[in-house]
Each structure stands twice: as structure tokens, then as C-alpha cells.
């Protein structure tokens, strides 16, 4: 096995499949959460977009991304991902028809399942 312990599964061949589910879930969160918030408050919807896209773009765990602007411990990256997954699911249930929300929920469960190896690595990362 040629994998190094200092590199996340995210950056290996095994990380490609989970990355597809993760990116799909992130894209849904970026759309669904602001969409759900817009009927309540447009500024809240704008803030949601900035936070959901900006925070993970700026903060990352060393070894999990090729370029890290601000290094954070692994638990922080796991927390950011859980927030994105929750935003996708809750946003879908509040903004879209139930059948779409069910599909998003299934994708979210699949994402959590495929992310577990990465999250185990992140839990051990400094």
C-alpha cells in the first residue's frame, strides 16, 4: 500500500468517488439553503451563500487539500462538512418539493457513508 498517513484519502485514488458525492452535496447546499432563506430574508440568503462557499474555501486541514489558506484541525473540517450536509438537507426540505428533498436526503446519507474514511483521517489530523 503506497498511501501516506500524512495525506488524506481525499487526495488519493480512493477519494475520487466520495468527492463526487461531496461536491454534489455542496452544490445543493449552496443553492437550497439560500433558496429556503430567501423567502424569509434576502440578506440571510446572501450571508448563507458567502458562509457556505467562503468558509470551506478559506479554512482547511493540512494534507486534506493541495492548497491550504488557513490551516484548521481535522475536527473543524468535519464540522464544516456536516454543516454543508445539513444545509443541503434542510434547505431542500424547506425550499423544494418532497420528492426532491427525499433525493437530497438519500444523497446526504450516501455522502456521509463515503466520507467516513476521510473523516477518520481528519479525526487523527492535527
Structural overview:
By secondary structure, the protein is mainly α. It has one domain (9-121). 71% of the residues lie in helices and 3% in strands. It is built from four helices and two strands. It has helices at 16-38, 42-58, 74-95, 98-124, and strands at 59-60, 70-71. Strands 1-2 form a two-stranded parallel ribbon.
What is the count of helical runs?
Answer: 4
- The domain tally reads 1
In whole angstroms, the N-to-C terminal distance is 23 Å
Uncertain ranges: none
Largest sheet: 2 strands, parallel
Keywords: Membrane, Transmembrane, Transmembrane helix
Transmembrane segments: 40-61, 68-90, 96-116
Q: What order do the helices and strands come in, and which of them pair?
A:
Elements (H helix, E strand, L loop, with lengths): L15 H23 L3 H17 E2 L9 E2 L2 H22 L2 H27 L2
Parallel strand pairs: 1-2
Helix pairs in contact: 1-2, 1-3, 1-4, 3-4
Keywords: Membrane, Transmembrane, Transmembrane helix
Name its key features.
single chain; 126 residues; two-stranded parallel sheet; globular
Describe, in short, the structure shown.
With 126 residues, the chain is mainly α.
Amino acid at each position: 500500500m503506497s498511501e501516506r498517513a500524512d495525506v488524506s484519502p481525499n487526495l488519493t485514488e480512493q477519494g475520487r468517488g466520495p468527492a463526487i458525492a461531496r461536491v454534489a452535496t455542496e452544490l445543493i447546499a449552496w443553492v437550497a439553503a439560500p433558496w429556503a432563506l430567501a423567502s424569509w430574508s434576502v440578506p440571510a440568503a446572501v450571508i448563507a451563500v458567502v458562509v457556505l462557499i467562503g468558509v470551506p474555501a478559506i479554512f482547511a486541514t493540512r494534507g486534506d487539500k493541495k492548497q491550504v489558506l488557513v490551516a484548521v484541525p481535522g475536527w473543524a473540517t468535519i464540522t464544516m462538512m456536516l454543516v454543508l450536509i445539513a444545509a443541503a438537507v434542510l434547505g431542500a426540505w424547506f425550499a423544494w418539493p418532497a420528492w426532491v428533498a427525499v433525493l437530497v436526503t438519500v444523497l446526504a446519507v450516501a455522502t456521509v457513508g463515503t466520507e467516513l474514511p476521510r473523516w477518520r483521517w481528519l479525526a487523527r489530523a492535527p
